[in-house]
Design a protein that fits this description.
This protein is α/β, with parallel strands linked by helices. It is built from 9 helices and 10 strands.
Length: 230
Amino acid sequence: MEKYIWIGGKHSVEAAILKKKRKILEVVSLQKNKFLDDNKIKYEIKNNSFFNKIFSQTHVAHQGLAALVSGLPYMTLEEIHKDKNIIVLDGITDPGNIGSIIRSCVAFGIKSIIVKDREFNDKNQAMIKTSSGAIEEINVCKVVNIVNAIKWLKKKEFWAVCLDSGSKFNIHEHTWNKKNILILGSEGKGVSKIIKENCDYTIKINISKKVESLNVSNAAAVALYYLNNL
């Protein structure tokens, strides 16, 4: 049986309704809602107690709007390999970081991301809220083995680029190719060794020595800016 979850927040709910990727079982609001009325969406008006109950575990800032929805459909490598650039998340599990990265991806024109199947939960309320609706805009491809996915894409003329603070090469000096895979790793461990070994390039973002490192979602936004302006 398919699992349904509550998502909350104006941008998250409106994007889910407009993109129509999910099945929507129920929509609730704290008050009359112009967007829902204009789009002829059936909804019920509920009190604060109802919202506090459904978001009690994650403390999502629901903004008085929520929807009970299905999970997102996933894409295959065959379906996304025609994209110009693809982002890969390696070992990033914090829902806030994932949501922020997805938001930056959409902001900078990325259409697809690749994630490891056991590291990504599209039903996480906090991740969905942090993405501010962007999760509905991007194609998510779940794979069992990231290295195999990278090898497959390289055969399709992609060049694999790893963001690594230990690299000798600065991002502003990098010459991007026509088709790129940008791999982002966790803050603690970074990109795994075996994935680095399968990359064509490793690059870093120069930052002040007064700061040890950037949050991975911030680093992603910087890298995506460069990638978007190649």
